[in-house]
Specification:
- The protein is an alpha+beta fold.
- The two termini are 26 Å apart.
- It has one domain: Hotdog Thioesterase (Thiol Ester Dehydrase, Chain A, Roll), CATH 3.10.129.10.
- The protein is globular and about 45 Å long.
Length: 141
């Protein structure tokens, strides 16, 4: 398991945009499972929405991508690099994510060819699928 300080050694993201709190499973270049503890104090809840706070879907996708980036950038081949989004396909949001939820994020790297790659992400709350998407990325320095 990796804590947030160890994640920071792999990812360039920092507060307020580091969207994962821990990694529970890691197989470099294959798969990672991470967690975001969705705190009631998250800044995005101030405006989304003040009377019914819901985590924005785009931030759930970003959280999935960051877990995928840990799976990729933890390998010796890509250490010290940055993974940039190049695409999001087939994104589906099945349930809302609320303050206090534990968002479990799974990302499997499905293909890497040179600096380009693809992954499949799924996010869960209490074992229920809340979001899924296929993502693509390019690795740069």
């Amino acid at each position: 398991m990796l804590n947030q300080e160890q994640i920071k050694q792999i990812l360039p993201h920092r507060d307020p945009f580091l969207m994962i709190d821990e990694i529970r499973f890691l197989e470099p270049l294959k798969k990672a499972i991470g967690v975001k503890y969705v705190k009631p104090t998250e800044d995005f809840f101030r405006g989304h929405f003040p009377t019914k706070p819901v985590m924005p879907g785009v931030l759930i996708i970003e959280s999935l991508a960051q877990v995928g980036a840990v799976a990729l950038l933890s390998s010796e081949t890509y250490q010290g690099k940055i993974a940039f989004f190049t695409g999001i396909e087939s994104a589906k949001f099945r349930k809302s994510v609320y303050p206090g939820d534990e968002l479990v994020l799974e990302c499997e790297i499905t293909k890497v060819r040179g600096p380009f790659g693809f992954g499949q992400g799924k996010a869960y709350v209490n074992g229920e699928l809340v979001c899924e998407a296929n993502i693509s990325f390019a690795v740069g320095s």
